[in-house]
Structures are given as structure tokens and as C-alpha cells.
Specification:
2 domains, globular, Metallo-beta-lactamase, Chain A, single chain, 300 residues, binds zinc ion
């Protein structure tokens, strides 16, 4: 059951599987993300109506379906205009790009074309071409900051001292439970966490955790987890391994048993993110042998 919770005079959020920001701009509402699907969209509209608010704007932090899957319904049911940045906007416009990317650019297997990996299509009205910009609405100003790493062009939204963090940071509980959290660019994710640790907003709201006033400690826990996984992968590659072998051994190390084809592709992409980061920093090397790619740590 989603509930409207207040953070500041004009800033609220709906708590749910994905937290959704609600900014009161006079009689209108600005949403930060929209949720997974039509059923979430209907709940949002009912709550806005109960609070005499008209939906005017949706700002998506990134393209993942649990953040923009309700756009489609909301866009049809209201006059809401959608804002998104860079590549995120491209995938919100063309959701097929997500399963396509998980399947190496080939037409994806049908199992990957589900509502969790392929949101319903919506049309971005305002393509943001840069970050560190301010958007001025009737009674409030919103700042867009880069929080890349989990997703290529993820943004954070700052409003009235509150930072909506998207999936740039996870709770300690989630880290302890899952360890292998989803990132596509390890270097950018590390830079994002280092940046967050130095910020001083009044309040932070991650999409899948409770609001917090202190981000420094949580950023460190997130960063330590990434560094640990990177170290494990580097160690596993002391003997040369294919991507598939490394995936299997990393999952075994963390005692993860994959339960679906979707999870397999997410985990494989995550491993690829660690590999490209290590490779681009000249910490591992790549050899094409017998028509197979092998990764190996560089000593010294
Ligand atoms: Zn996400």
C-alpha cells in the first residue's frame, strides 16, 4: 500500500517497491520516477486526486522499468510531460533497447521481453542534454545532477534540500543480502559514491531504501562492497578464465544460485562491467585463444 509521506513543505514521496518523489507545485504535482506498471500508475493518480493535485511533470532518474514503466499509462491519462537525460531518454523512448543490450545486440530471447526488463513505451517530451542544470517550475526550482554508474546516464534530482538518489546507492541491508548489485560502469559508480559521500544535502531518498540524513557512512559501505567484488574477481583471474567461467565462479563465491534467465543476463552484464573496468585500467589482460576470449590478471 503506497502512502504519501512528507519530507519538506513541498517535497513528498510515495513509499513502495520503488520510492516515487512527489513535488507539490501549487495545484500541480511533479513526479520523480513513475513506478513499474499501469497498476502503480492508477494508484499514483488516485493519491494525487485525493490530495487535489494534477499531474504535470514526470522526471525519470533512469530508464529501468521499475522507474519508468508507469509513464505510459500516466502520459495517456494526463497531460504530464516527461523529462529524461541522454541515453536514459533514448531507452525510455525505445524500451526494446534494454533487452536488446542484454542479448548482445541480437534480437533478444522472449524471456527477456518482460515488464521488468522492457517498460511500456512512453515519449520523452524534454530531452535533457546536460546535467548540473536547474529546471524552473511555477513555484519551485529543481536541480539535475549526474549519478552515473548503475545506469549509463542516471541522474539525481535535488529539490528543497532533498536529493532523490535513484539507484545510485543501496541500503546496508540490501548490500548484506545481495552483495552483487547491478552496475554497468564500475568506475563511474565509484566516482558517484565518492561524490555522494562529500555532499551535504538535508535529506537523501534512494529509490529502494528509507530516507536518510547521513549519506557518508552508507556511501562507504556501498564503495567497500564494490572494491571487495573487484578484488575477488582480480584474484579469480590469477588463472585465465572465460567470461562464463568467471561468472560461474564469482556466483559460487557469493553463494548465489541463479533462478531465471533474466537474473543470468543481469549478473553477466554486471561481471562484464567489472571486467571492462579492470581491463581499461590495465589490471587484467585479454587473450583470444581457440576462438574463445580469456581474461587474466596482470601481476605486479
Ligand atoms: Zn535501476
Amino acid at each position: 500500500m503506497m502512502e504519501l509521506k512528507q519530507l519538506t513543505e513541498q517535497v513528498y514521496y510515495l513509499d513502495g517497491p520503488t520510492n516515487i518523489g512527489v513535488i507539490k507545485d501549487r495545484e500541480s504535482a511533479i513526479l520523480i520516477d513513475s513506478g513499474l506498471d499501469d497498476s502503480v500508475a492508477k494508484k499514483i493518480l488516485r493519491i494525487l486526486e485525493d490530495n487535489n493535485l494534477t499531474l504535470k511533470t514526470i522526471i525519470n532518474t533512469h530508464f529501468h522499468a521499475d522507474h519508468c514503466g508507469a509513464n505510459n499509462y500516466l502520459q495517456q491519462a494526463t497531460e504530464a510531460e516527461i523529462y529524461a537525460y541522454g541515453i536514459e531518454a533514448a531507452i525510455i523512448n525505445y524500451p526494446y533497447l534494454e533487452p536488446l543490450s542484454f542479448f548482445s545486440g541480437a534480437n533478444p530471447i522472449k524471456d527477456l521481453k518482460n515488464k521488468f526488463l522492457m517498460a511500456k513505451e512512453s515519449k520523452v517530451d524534454h530531452l535533457l542534454k546536460e546535467t548540473n542544470i536547474k529546471l524552473n517550475f511555477d513555484s519551485i526550482e529543481v536541480e539535475i545532477i549526474p549519478l552515473q554508474g548503475h545506469s549509463v546516464n542516471q541522474i539525481g534530482v535535488v529539490v528543497d534540500g532533498v536529493l532523490f538518489c535513484g539507484d545510485s546507492i543501496f541500503s546496508k541491508k540490501v548490500i548484506d543480502k545481495h552483495k552483487l548489485l547491478f552496475y554497468t560502469d564500475i568506475e563511474k559508480q565509484k566516482a558517484t559514491l565518492e561524490f555522494l559521500a562529500e555532499t551535504n544535502y538535508d535529506c537523501y531518498l534512494p529509490s529502494h531504501a528509507k530516507a536518510t540524513t547521513d549519506i557518508r557512512e552508507l556511501a562507504k559501505v556501498n564503495l567497500d562492497c564494490i572494491n571487495e567484488i573487484e578484488g575477488i574477481i582480480f584474484k579469480l583471474l590469477e588463472s585465465a578464465k572465460s567470461t562464463e567461467q568467471l561468472l560461474q565462479e564469482t556466483l559460487a563465491y557469493y553463494q548465489v544460485k541463479l533462478k531465471s534467465l533474466q537474473q543470468y543476463h543481469l549478473m553477466k552484464t554486471l561481471i562484464m562491467a567489472y571486467l571492462s573496468s579492470l581491463y581499461n585500467n590495465d589490471r587484467i589482460e585479454l587473450e583470444l585463444r581457440d576462438n574463445c576470449l580469456y581474461w587474466k590478471s596482470i601481476k605486479g
